[in-house]
Structures are given as C-alpha cells and as structure tokens.
Amino acid sequence: MDFTTQLLIAAISAGTPLLLATLGGILNERAGIIQLGAEGLMLMGAVTTCIVYIRSGNLLLALLATVAVTAVLGLLHSFLCVTLRANQTMSGLAMTLFGSGLSAYLGKPISGIPLPGTSPKLHLAWLENVPVIGPIFGNMDYLTWFSLLLVLALHLLIHRTSWGLHLRAVGDSPATADVMGIRVELIRYSYVIVGAALIGLAGADMVLAYAPTWNEGLTAGRGWIAVGLVIFARWNPLRALFCAYFFGALDSLGFRIQLLGSAVPPYFLKMIPYLVTILVLMYLGYRNRNKPSGTPEALGVPYIREQRF
Amino acid sequence: MSLENGRNTAAAVLEPIPAHSGKRSSLRLEYDASRIRSPWWTPIVSIILALLLCALFIAANGMNPVLVYEKMFRGAFGTTYGLTETMVKAIPLLLCGLGIAVAYRISIWNIGAEGQLTVGAMAATAVTIYFPNLSSFWSLSLMLLFGIAAGALWGLLTAIPRTHFGVNELITSLMLNYVALLALDYVVFGPWKDPKGFNFPGSPKFTAAQSLPVLGSTRLHIGLLFGLIAVMIYYLMIRFTKWGYELRLIGANPVAARYAGIHIKRHIIIVMLISGGLAGIAGMAEVSGVTHKLMQGISPGYGYTAIIVAWLAKLNPLGLIVTSILFGGLIVGGYSVQTIGLPSSISEMLQGSILFFLIAGDMIYRFRIRRSGVQLKGGR
Q1: Fewer Cβ in 10 A, N or C end of chain A?
Q2: What ipTM goes with this model?
C-alpha cells in the first residue's frame, strides 16, 4: 500500500468519531439548540462503552448502554435548554465539566485495562482486490459503515423529507413553526436526544477503533473540534463527511510525519488540528463576512411563546 | 406556559374562564421573563443538591457518602495545613475567575483561562532561564510582567478572531488551551529540561530570588495579595469608571450600547487582554509561589474550575472570594479522599453537577406555579 492509501485509511479511521460527533452536533443545532457538551458526551460514551464491554464482553450491549447513557444526558440538556430555557452555552459547558469528571470517576477502576475486542470489521471479499478503493472500503468496521450510511440518511432526512422541513423550520423560526402547528418543544427534545446519542457513539468509536483502552480525558479536545466542524460543514451532513475526514487526515498526518523520522518535535505536529481549526474558522468568517453563514437563525435563542400578561 | 403540554398554552390563555373555574382550576407552571435576577440562595441550594446527587454515585461505588464528604471537608478546612492549602488553590481560582467574570460582563465566554495560565507560567519561567542572576525584586517584577504579557497575548489570540473574523471565542479559547499545554510539554521535555533533573520533565528549580515570599512555614504565598488587590481594582473599575459603566451597558443590552456609540470590538479586545493577563498572573504565581519550577500538570484544571467559580459568584467580587475558597477546598478535599481509595475526580464531578443545578435553579426561579384561570386578568 502506498502512502496516500495508508493516509486515507488512517483519515477515515481517525475521522469517523469526528464525523459521528459532527452529525450529532448538526442535528442539535439544526433544531436550534447549541451543543457545547460534545466533549463531555464523548467521554461519557467512551467510558460507558469500556465499562460495559469489559464487564459483559458483549459489544452490542456496550453500544446500547452508551446510547442509553448519552441519551439521558441529552434529555438533561434539552430539559435545561428547551423547558427551562437555560443558557445553552452554560449548559453545554456544564455537560463537558460534568462528563469529564464523572467519566474519570467511573473509569478509574478500569483504567488501562484493554477492551476484549475492537470494532468488528466487515470484510467485502469481492471489493478487496479492486485497486485504490478496495483496500479502503473492503475492510472497514461496522461503525464506519454506519457513519457513512448515517451521512446519507441524515442528508435525505434534512433536505428531502417533511420531517426535515419541520426540523429546519424549528431551527430557523420556531415562532412560525409553532403557528403552523409544528410541535417545537417535541422536535427540539427529540433531536437533542438523538444528537447526544450520536456524540456518545463517537466516543464509543474512539475507544473501539482508535485506542482500545480507557484513559482519563482520552478524547483530547476532539469533541470541541467537532463543535468547530459543525460550523465548517455549515450544518450540512455531506460536507460534514469531507470536513471530518480532512481533520482525520490532519490528525494522522502528524503521527505519520513523526514515524518518518521528522526533525519537528511531535508536540508541534500534535498542535496542527487545533491550529487548523482556528485558521479555517477565521478564513470562513472572512470569506462569509458579507454573506449569510448558513447558521440556523434561531440557534441559541430559547423559544418563548408570546404570553399575555 | 404549561410544562406538560406546551401546545395548548396560547389557546388556554385566550379561552374565557369557565364559570366553574374556581372549582376546577389546576396548577400549572408559568414562565415569567421579568424575573431576571435570581436570589442569592440559589448557589447554596445548588451545592446541596449537587452533594446529594454525587452521594448517589459514591454510594453506588460502595462507599459511605457521609464519611467521604466528612473526609473531604476535614481535609480542606479541618487543619491549619488543609486550610492554607485551600487558600493556595484559591489564589489561581480567584485570579482566573476574576478574568472570566470581567469577560462575561460583556457576554464573552472565555474558557481559555487554562491555556492563559499555562503560557503565563511559561513566560515567568523563561525569565528565570534567560535572566538567572537578577536581584529578587527585578526577577519577580520581570516574571510578573512576562506572565501578564503572555496571558494577555493568549487572550488577544482569542479576541482578534472574534472581533475581526466572527469566530466563536469558545472554540478558539479552548483550542488554544490544547496548544498551550502542548507547548508546555515541548519546553519541559525539550529545551528547558533540567539537566540535573534525573531525566524528569521539568525546568530547573527556581532560586530563592525567583520565588514569591510565603507566610511563615506554610505554602501560602503572596499571590493571595495579588488576587485580593485585583478583586478590589475590579470592583472599583466596574463601579466607578466610565469603562465599567460601558461594560455594564454592553452587558445589559449590546444592541442599545452599539447605538449609543460604544465601540464593542474595542471592549472585547480590552476585556480579553485583562482576562488573559489575570490568568497569566495566576500562572506566574503558581510556578513562582507553589511549584518553584515549570512542569507538566501545573494546573489541575484551574481554568475550567474558575468558570464555575465566576458563575457561582454571579460575577460579584466578594462572592468571587468566597467561591474561590470554597472550590479551593473542593480540590484539596478531592486530594484527601485519595487516601481512602477514591479518585480525586470526585471534586470535578461535584463541580460539574453544581453548575448544572445552578443554571437549572436560576431558571426554575423564573417559573411560577399558578392556578390556571387566574392568569387571565391581565397585568400583574
């Protein structure tokens, strides 16, 4: 395998958790709720997967538990933001702080114990011998396939169905949606919960495909990069695919340069994804300074149906 | 606004009261947006509820939560040693929290205090490495100056993308935290590593001239004064200067402030310089007053804890002093439960849940329980 193919495989592997978290973030924000708790949710997802997988040995059970735990956290976030109309930024920060504390606490006993297995792979014998795409797609794990299907599904959902129309209406103008009889609160609740569960799966993917053991704070800011990726992707699942793989490539490129014996200290190579996040956001901000950014109009604004006093 | 069924509220409000409503009235929650200021006791209630919630997790782990909390409390406030250690931890929390509070005055979410503290500590260490033989006064003044400058620069790196490119400061400041921590790793493993340090990552130990004076035989250093002075200046500036007035105005209503001709971008930059500079002081005080050398993990998440400190204090200067001591105690208490085999992340868990209950509590206060049918009468 040549360097490019290897890099592509590594980019997909490192990009999948980012992709899942970004898709989760897109669902949240399309419904008008900011999700800054991605880092905490990913950590909670990762630690739940590790604990349940190590204790039970059953991967499916571990993933179900991950979805359940992070969905409950999503419920908490939506209760705070939708029902109580709390500050969404603060709720997200609380989620991140609580998630990193609780995951460190729960994960202490299993810290460093390797998982019983990694994410199972789907071998496609007929595809493996095809040049270029064969080595990449012939041997991907189920979670990666799931994320690819999810991109397509969410794209169709958001842009081609009436459910998606309702979702966009709620994110852009909840008051109008409300007048049209769309249940704003219900939609916001559902998408925040589903989005949180996807971000939790991103954490699960990180431990299953990337580093098959629990370490405190193992996401190392990838949840926050996903928050940035939601903006790069302009709340669009198809773009999210490319953005996530681009960052996956950056992530693994640093590692690979290190393997090639570069003179640049590894610390600087590890800075690349963070610095590129800032630079890309700055570039987008500069380019779109006179254009609408594609942000859901009501993002971060709690909806209060007009009341008569 | 009813909680159980949001859809019917408008209709319910418009419906005439049935004649028999007095008998059939039901209780419902109603949102009252005019209750902006939450009462002083919500932080206290949040802390109690957070303690109860975390007690569940501790009990699930097979420990007695009462004993654990007692251990934490004794560890943090029970002995002279514990108390001074708590104060030592409170210093960076106070300084960083103050910086966050200043930024939050105009709704700038600086979550980069961790990185700003780190670069402050690095800059102060740079002074000890490149100017090793200065007198105590010059050395410490230069370290303080460098610490402030580095922190302020790090704050500027967050402010400029925000003001000139419209980049959300949350993401930038957090990304810069990771960059700062990696830079710290680079210098302690690389160029600044102590040649006599048995290959342990860290800078050479500071000399007495490069260390902040301490109180008696304790570890409590003069950085406490920096914190208290900064709080006093913050209070006076916000309360009595034109600048403080403008900050309060932007905080209350940014649109009106812009129409009033207040230069919001300039305020964002100034506020982030101050915010970063204060965290930089905290970093300088930490290396010069406590660890006496630069090493990995000089901050056990002070920058993040300070967010809660500032929020819990509701940006009030006196409140900041109280909450930073409280959270200093929480960190020290977290360490002290390690002796009975519990992870110190208990304190992080507590911090996160306190924040949850606090933001929920502030909002729940805005809801009123009312009997339906009563609300129709118009003006309250």
Answers
A1: N
A2: 0.83
